[in-house]
Design goal:
25% strand; globular; six-stranded antiparallel sheet; binds magnesium ion; six-stranded mixed sheet; 42% helix; 17 strands; alpha/beta; binds adenosine-5'-triphosphate
């Protein structure tokens, strides 16, 4: 089993950094500093270098240092036993990504290297709307399931075509039947992948939460307008077709496709009840963090490589026992980055401590 590792990372004009060059520790890195100095921005730069986009920026151009034309992040990665250079350039309206000197599009770049990010905003995974959970299923969990990203791209195209027909030419029965066929075939594939991922993740999640104490039963339930009896792609496609037929008159009224993976949702249950509604703060936080750790395990299994783990402001919300268990769970295989406040540097782990002050980052402690 190999592990992905950031050996060096450099950035120019990224958020509040004019320029930095950092050589992280291969295992454990602590990023410390007062509020608003650039800790989260540093984590964002690492995620950007590994996935080619920011999860935090509402607009891609936001990551560019105010007043500059573009931001640039370069990293040397140890990836499957080789040293690989990645380059990500973000300008106000355009982006350039390359791996080992070759231009790569966003879709391919995003499914090349594993980076699992946890931030307090991830609580939206439970608290937010269904689109948050679909985004998690599509762009986080399923990215490394073979064929998923391509099927998703094609599905979105078919959905746009079918919706356009519903709006402009609902009487064109022949085209409509063709797009329905295409949509349900791709939809069947997507849902099948999602269910497979959830099937792998559920026992991991149960085990993790059991270890953390509490004793509650957790469950994941996939919610779909289609009645999912048969779990093959073709079987699900058939169920989707039925759901669309049943929704036919609603579709004509709303002028949009009313069933399919773009409308499905995921429920997290604690002892059979919706965690979103009934879970305590601590339970919700633990579930989200556990889901992210499941993502690490799943990606390891799918790619044969341990992803880089980025934890932004996670630790101050957790008690000491749980911190220790999380770090143990990550084991000694993942390269980990954690941000902490000023006075709470976790002791006893081998690694490097960086200090961030007003857009400057430097290594202050190093141990091997
Ligand atoms: P906290 O402990 O409060 O989470 P932090 O160290 O994580 O703080 P960051 O989120 O990294 O802080 O933000 C540091 C500063 O970067 C903020 O003051 C913010 O205004 C600034 N900033 C954000 N985007 C840009 C940008 N595009 N150009 C310049 N500065 C920016
Ligand atoms: Mg922060």
């Amino acid at each position: 089993m190999s592990r992905l590792c950031i050996c060096t990372v450099e950035a120019q004009s990224f958020r509040n950094y004019t320029d930095f060059r950092v050589e992280p520790h291969p295992r454990f890195n602590v990023i410390s500093g007062r509020n608003a100095q650039g800790k989260s921005n540093f984590i964002e730069a690492l995620y950007f270098a590994l996935r080619g986009f920011s999860l935090r920026a509402a607009r891609a151009g936001e990551v560019v240092l105010w007043g500059r034309p573009g931001a640039r992040v370069t990293a040397d990665l140890e990836h499957r036993g080789m040293l690989t250079r990645v380059l990500c350039v973000q300008e106000e309206k355009s982006k350039r990504l390359s791996i080992a000197g070759q231009r790569v599009n966003q879709e391919d770049f995003a499914s090349r290297f594993g980076a699992v990010l946890f931030t307090p905003d991830d609580l939206l995974l439970l608290k937010g709307g269904p689109q948050e959970r679909r985004r998690f299923l599509d762009f986080e969990m399923s990215v490394f399931s073979p064929g998923y990203t391509a099927a998703l791209r094609e599905y979105r195209r078919a959905l746009a075509q079918r919706n356009a027909l519903l709006r402009a030419a609902p009487g064109d029965k022949e085209s409509f039947a063709l797009w329905t066929e295409r949509l349900t075939a791709l939809g069947g594939e997507l849902i099948m992948h999602r269910l497979q991922v959830l099937k792998r993740v559920t026992p991991l999640l149960e085990e993790m939460l059991k270890e953390w104490g509490g004793g509650e039963e957790v469950g994941l339930r996939y919610r779909s307008a289609a009645v999912l009896r048969e779990l093959s792609a073709a079987g699900i496609a058939g169920a989707l077709r039925e759901a669309l037929e049943q929704n036919g008159s609603r579709e004509m009224k709303m002028r949009q496709t009313m069933a399919g993976p773009h409308r499905d949702d995921l429920s997290v249950l604690i002892d059979g009840r919706e965690a979103r509604v009934f879970g305590s703060q601590g339970q919700q936080r633990s579930i989200v963090l556990a889901l992210k750790l499941c993502q690490v395990a799943l990606w390891k299994e799918l790619t044969g490589e341990t992803p880089v783990v980025l934890l932004d402001d996670v630790f101050f919300e957790l008690d000491r026992g749980r911190r220790r268990k999380i770090l143990e769970k990550l084991g000694d295989d993942a390269q980990v980055f954690v941000t902490v406040g000023d006075s709470e540097i976790p002791a006893g782990k081998e690694g490097k401590v960086f200090r961030v002050e007003n857009g400057n980052i430097k290594s202050v402690v190093s141990s091997r």
